[in-house]
Design goal:
This protein is 32% helix and 24% strand. By secondary structure, the protein is of the alpha+beta class.
């Protein structure tokens, strides 16, 4: 027996029939789950591809602020 980390629903799984890395779907909230441990079964939410792409991007404002800080530091060094 395992629980969905998103909605806490009980998910019946046989430890001997699942493998680490296997992707499942929660029957209650339909979120994708990855088996990260088999004894006892532990599940993690599989992140959406869109979320992964967003995490690697900077906001335009952050980039501009970093550039301004670099320019200020260069002027101080001279």
């Amino acid at each position: 027996m395992a629980r969905c980390p998103d909605c806490e629903a009980e998910i019946e799984l046989d430890e001997d029939e699942v493998e680490e890395g296997e992707i499942l779907s929660c029957p209650e909230c339909e979120v994708e789950l990855e088996v990260v441990q088999t004894h006892p079964v532990q599940l993690n939410i599989v992140p959406d591809e869109d979320e992964e792409e967003d995490e690697g991007l900077f906001d335009e404002d952050e980039i501009e602020e970093d550039d301004e800080e670099d320019e200020d530091e260069e002027e101080e060094d001279e």
